[in-house]
Amino acid sequence: MATVTIHQAKTQLSRLIVRACAGEEIVIARGKMPVARLQPVPAPKRGFGSMRGRFTIGDDFDEPLPEEELAAWER
After folding, report:
1. CATH code of 26's domain
2. Kind and range of the H or E element at 19?
3. Is 55 among the domain residues?
């Protein structure tokens, strides 16, 4: 566990974030008194089918594009 002062945390925040994301516990202290802990935010858990029911696909999804749209794509 690494302990840093508030001043060190201000000047080295980017480095401390990298260390915390790597799994190191970083404690920020005011003088010798610990006041905060720097830790990564857990990534959201996403699973297969998590968007089920949130949108629909129209019946014409796989229909050919109109001629004017095709012409715009072929320029």
Report:
1. 3.40.1620.10
2. helix 13-21
3. no
Quick: pLDDT tens for 41-75: 888 888 888 888 888 888 989 999 889 988 898 87
Determine the pLDDT at residue 52. 87
CA 38 to chain centre: 16
Stretch 10-14: mean pLDDT: 96
How many Cβ atoms from other residues are within 10 Å of residue 4's Cβ? 19
> Model confidence at 37, in pLDDT bands (50, 70, 90)?
very high
Asked if the structure places residue 75 within a domain, the reply is no
Q: Is residue 35 part of a domain?
A: yes
Is 58 inside a domain boundary?
no
Give 32-72 as a 3 state SS string.
Answer: CEEEEEECCCCCCCCCCCCCCCCCCCCCCCCCCCCHHHHHH
